[in-house]
Design brief:
nine-stranded mixed beta sheet; Rossmann fold; 3 domains; RNA-binding; 16 helices; alpha+beta; 31 strands; YbaK protein; single chain
RNA sequence: CGGGGUGUAGCGCAGUCUGGUAGCGCACAUGGUUUGGGACCAUGGUGUCGGAGGUUCAAAUCCUCUCACCCCGACCA
């Protein structure tokens, strides 16, 4: 490829619209351009990267026995109504109407369509298992698209769906996908961590996410892992136990119930204020948070030093919509300002408490009266608990729920893939069944598996860059080599550069030649910016000695070699780079 | 949806408070000098000032409405 004939619109300045480094670099280096919020054009270099990634995905999927298909983007609303997701997915679902006023959906995932596809056609357990996948554009009406391709409204995704006759077979299918995913990301140059995750609107029994660990702001997800065993989970799933509960006496061993008393706490609303005022540790306080779950008010209780995890709360309540109640509703319910809510005497609401609460004795709560708190409150004696559940957010340093010995640590990650154990949620709701060995009709056991293609590309940039630009892993670099004649006006330089270029092309090497009549600085900077792994500099300095320079992107060292040997040398270097992945 | 902010040349921005010829840098075009890390000189082209309405002799500037985009939060298959 000649640079002069390729659309690579690099910028001198960082774009104002981008926030994180990978987004800035993709725009500056001429890989992507925004059309509208969360929607991007992929320019030639980007398209090449995406093809590299999809090829890797395709190879590994095919190896695992999956079959590639292509399903429609446009779905009838009816299917989504049958599965229930017309309601549960809510506003993220991109909806539209046709000229007959029929509701349609722009697919953001294809469980409904794929289930419908095999329904009635796969009738026997003998035809199972089946794994179908596609690589296709997906639509999600994100509330706030951001970070370029990280959270777009339109993006490329590989999605796969498995159908099995029984749990045993399903577990094998699931493991195959997990193995394939580790291979896919590894081949893309990305180490990933597999973490337990919430199933969300997807439904099903369990789910995992594949995270690229980064230490930049691009890592949107907080993941927890144990420093002793292999436990790891994302923030919405991670559970933990509190070391304090075990260490400090009085929390687990029964204290004697003290008499409940009302104390005057003027203007002390926050945990911090009450803690200071009453000289009690935050662990002795209990927060009462009023939520609205599918329209009904719910009181959620949690220890003062913990944070509620709304995903966990939502799951525990089994509701679709969950939001903090507005202050008017709270005042009406508690007859007090927000900040003085408490469980004692609260009527007409479901009382859900975190699993730590039943172990607490003689704690402090709001009194449902302005400027008053209650001390020495005890559950069951002073108020009734309707439900106990883990509804708190895990914190770094807390105990591992799996091995009980290690402590939890945190990392920031970019979710590049996910896998869901769907069970029979979709096969049942859409009536997709087969006849099993025993002659009985049963719903398929399903799994679904996604890889964000565009997100993976950006995750690689977020992971591999320096102050000058992108440093692509060789396996997904748009091209391998950039030949840079320092001064294209110089006939010798030009001839040598083009000679190398021609020979490399004849050898099917992936090569770009910067044949632009630009000054050296511009070319060097652009070369670093677009981030091809190997640069071959042809300049006056060393040409006199019949030598050209080989420079690895991201490394400072430069190798000199006679121009006759550059082809072999380059091949060797690239082979070595490839071997790393 | 709530809070904050921005829309002026291809890109980055000034000008808006205090109404009076629409600017700067980069990029672009032509000519020349230069040529190993974002050159220099000269000349030149470039705008519905996001849109609509209003106030005014006069609006990028003031008022009303509206659209788009960005950030924080809620949300996230």
């Amino acid at each position: 490829m000649k640079w002069s004939e390729t659309y690579i619109p690099t910028l001198r300045e960082f774009p104002a619209e981008a926030e994180i480094i990978s987004h800035k670099l993709l725009i500056k280096a001429g890989y992507i351009r925004k059309l509208t919020s969360g929607v991007y054009n992929y320019l030639p270099l980007m398209q090449s990267v995406l093809l590299k990634i999809t090829n890797i995905v395709r190879e590994e999927m095919n190896k695992s026995g999956a079959q590639e298909i292509l399903m429609p983007v446009l779905h009838p609303a009816e299917l989504w109504q049958k599965s229930g997701r017309w309601e549960t997915v809510g506003k993220e679902l991109m909806r539209m109407r046709d000229r007959h006023q029929r509701d349609l959906v722009l697919g953001g995932t294809h469980e409904e369509v794929v289930t419908n596809l095999i329904k009635g056609e796969i009738r026997s357990y003998r035809q199972l298992p089946v794994n179908l996948y596609q690589i296709q554009t997906k639509f999600r009406d994100e509330i706030r698209p951001r970070f370029g391709l990280m959270r777009g409204r339109e993006f490329l995704m590989k999605d796969a769906y498995t159908f099995d006759a029984n749990e045993k077979s399903f577990n094998i299918s699931y493991q195959k996908m997990v193995d394939a995913y580790f291979k896919i990301f590894k081949r893309c140059g990305l180490e990933t961590k597999m973490v337990e995750s919430d199933t969300g609107a997807m439904g099903g029994k369990a789910a995992h996410e594949f995270m690229v660990i980064v230490d930049t702001e691009g890592g949107e997800n907080i993941i927890f892992y144990c420093d002793r065993c292999d436990y790891s989970a994302n923030i919405d799933k991670a559970s933990s136990f509190d070391l304090k509960e075990i260490k400090s006496e009085g929390f687990t061993e029964k204290e004697t119930f003290k008499k409940m008393e009302k104390v005057h706490t003027p203007d002390k609303k926050t945990i911090e204020e009450v803690t200071l005022f009453l000289n009690q540790p935050p662990e002795k306080l209990v927060k009462t948070l009023i939520y609205r779950a599918d329209g009904n008010l719910v009181a959620a209780l949690i220890r003062g030093d913990k944070e509620i995890n709304e995903v966990k709360l939502k799951n525990a309540l089994g509701c679709i919509q969950l939001e903090m109640a507005d202050s008017e509703s709270i005042k009406k319910l508690t007859k007090a300002e927000v900040g003085f809510s408490g469980p004692v005497g609260l009527k007409g609401v479901k009382m859900i408490v975190d699993e730590q609460i039943p172990n607490l004795f003689n704690f402090v709560t709001g009194a449902n009266q302005n400027d008053y708190h209650l001390v020495n409150v005890n559950s069951e004696r002073d108020f009734k608990i309707d439900q106990v559940a883990d509804i708190k957010t895990a914190k770094e340093g807390e105990g591992c729920p799996k091995c009980k010995k290690g402590r939890l640590k945190t990392d920031r990650g970019i979710e590049v893939g996910n896998t869901f154990m769907l069970g029979t949620k979709y096969s049942q709701s859409l009536g997709a069944t087969f006849i099993d060995k025993d002659g009985k009709e049963k719903p398929f056991i399903m799994g679904s598996y996604g890889v964000g293609i565009t997100r993976t590309a950006q995750a690689a940039v977020e992971k591999y860059h320096d102050e000058k630009g992108i440093i692509w892993p060789v396996s997904i670099a748009p091209l391998h080599i950039n030949i840079l004649p320092v001064n294209i006006q110089d006939q010798t330089q030009k001839n040598v550069a083009f000679d190398i270029y021609q020979r490399m092309k004849e050898n099917k090497m992936e090569v770009l030649i910067d044949d632009r009549d630009e000054r050296a600085g511009v070319k060097f900077n652009d070369s670093d910016l677009i981030g091809l792994p190997l640069r071959i500099t042809v300049g006056e300095k060393y040409l006199k000695k019949k030598k050209v320079e080989l420079t690895l992107r991201g490394k400072n060292e430069t190798l000199f070699c006679p121009k006759e040997e550059v082809l072999e040398k380059s091949k060797k270097i690239l082979e070595k780079l490839k071997a790393v992945f």
